[in-house]
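Hey, sorry to bother you again with one of my protein questions. I've been staring at a protein lately and its backbone has me curious. I owe you a coffee for this, so here goes:
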Amino acid sequence: MRTATYFFIFLNLSLAVFEEPAVYPLPFLVTSLVEVLCLLVFFGRLTHFAKVTHRSVFWKDTKNICIMAAVLLSLTDLAIYGVLRIYNVKSIRWSRIVRPIFLINFAESRQIRRAFRSIRNTLPEITYVFLLFMFSLLMFSLMALKLFGERNLQTAEGLPYFRNYLEIVFDLYVLVTTANSPDVMMPAFDFSSWYALFFIAFVIINTYIFMSLFLAVVYNNYKKHLKVIFEGTNY
């Protein structure tokens, strides 16, 4: 039963490789039949569990409710998508995001569920660091708008440079990863080399300080919750 459950969970998750838009596209009828088969197996597994479990215990278990809801949502979305496809109406499979629920909530996935709980318990404790980082990003974006917005600078592609606040926030957010460095600063640097100080300060504060602090908080809190799990407290 455990091997069969893992196999069909893996098969269900693998459908993303073959469904449109896909790496290796297969006909919709093939992928839909495979998905229906997986959902029937999941529903049968849930029914089997309900037969050997007291009714009050079964319905109080959140994992069972999540699996049942995921099955119903997936079937509903598949039916709607199929009908719209018959009438050549373009739509998306929004239920794909619920597929990991099967991986997490079956009884056999206890270790994955523990890791997920550790991540979930860690998130509230890193919220303050994340909010500080976002505040710094928004303030630097506002400074960039005031510094460069009225100088009619252009990028190498001839597009306006740092004139839209939301685009500035996105560009500087990407700069935290250094993915667009130094391209994002070159129009300002070509105008005046002194503007490099702005980007140097931004990288030092947000990439080297905030990202290191963020990583330290995540690591320490995740390790703390993982220790609680192995000690068996409240789990």
